[in-house]
TrEMBL record:
It comes from the Bacteria. Belongs to the transferase hexapeptide repeat family. This is Acetyltransferase-like isoleucine patch superfamily enzyme. Pfam families: Hexapep (PF00132), Hexapep_2 (PF14602). It comes from Mucilaginibacter lappiensis. The keyword Transmembrane applies. Keywords: Membrane, Transferase, Transmembrane, Transmembrane helix. CDD domains: LbH_MAT_like (cd04647).
């Protein structure tokens, strides 16, 4: 019984620590502290304030990636984010949720993979087990329930293909990171 309560307390403290980290004034300081919690994050990443991360030790973020304000990164089942990914403001990426058919409302989930050059527009929701292919774009407000093919633009609820994207992407978003936001 004591072990269960201790685990809940430990989880609550970790949640508060990650929340505190998200309000610090410098990207490098945020990255340093998340690395102390075993996250695998390139130094050339923009982590804008008030993001939320769950289970940072299961999080990997590649170089040149930008994480917008109020983004939720649920890494409890594993979250891999590639290079030069733009995760806009208020995006939610979930790896764990509840099974609505479970008699005891059990949790279920799978890792999420966001490949290189992906753009997740504001207020998109990515559900557990999804892979977003290289260069794909998820339109604002879309809910992604299935894998997205590379260089495909999807939108809607649930997200469906609406266009194709240029496949000759060479940009480096690390040049766009503002130092103190």
């Amino acid at each position: 019984m004591f072990g269960h309560h201790f685990d809940k307390l430990k989880g609550s403290v970790l949640y508060m620590v990650c929340g505190f980290i998200s309000w610090l004034p410098f990207h490098t300081l945020r990255i340093f502290l998340l690395r102390m919690l075993k996250a695998k994050i390139s130094w050339k990443v923009g982590l804008y304030r008030n993001f939320e991360v769950r289970s940072p030790w299961k999080l990997s973020i590649g170089k040149g990636t930008i994480i917008g304000h109020n983004a939720l990164l649920d890494a409890r089942m594993g979250l891999t984010i590639g290079n030069n990914v733009n995760i806009s403001n208020e995006v939610m990426i979930w790896t764990l949720h509840h099974d609505y058919n479970s008699t005891d409302f059990a949790q279920t989930g799978q890792p999420v993979i966001i490949e290189d050059y992906v753009w997740l527009c504001s207020r998109t929701v990515i559900l557990p087990g999804v892979t977003i292919g290289k260069g794909a774009v998820v339109a604002a407000g879309a809910v992604v329930t299935r894998n997205v093919q590379p260089y495909t633009v999807v939108g809607g609820v649930p997200a469906k293909p609406i266009a194709k994207r240029n496949e000759n992407l060479t940009y480096d978003l690390s040049d766009a990171v503002l130092p103190i936001i």
